[in-house]
Amino acid sequence: MFKSFSILALAAVLLAACASEPEPAxxxxxxPEEPGPDAGTMGGMCGGIAAISCQxxxxxxxxxxxxxxxxxxxxxxxxxxxxxTAEYKPVCGFxxxxxxxxxxxxxxxxxxxxxxxxxGDEGTTAR
Length: 127
What we know:
By secondary structure, the protein is α+β, with helices and mostly antiparallel strands.
């Protein structure tokens, strides 16, 4: 009888050891992304291969300095400032003109190409 009981106990232990653990519940899906601003609206994409214009009259397509030599670069529609400080910190605009500061360039709807005066434009500043 002890032998039968030992065999049954051993069988129960082996069956318990072979039982697989339940699969963990799948991770919940990530929350949906909030859609960004529509192209051509304030804060939305502009320019690019589609040449999307900013719809708001007070906006301009602002590009980063790294976009100067990219023909189909895209920018972001930003509001043109109404007023700027008189601080003189010259910048070279994408249009090849020197502006008194980045705000003055933005006021004219021009993105900053780089800090400093434009080559061949020493002594002349737009606005």
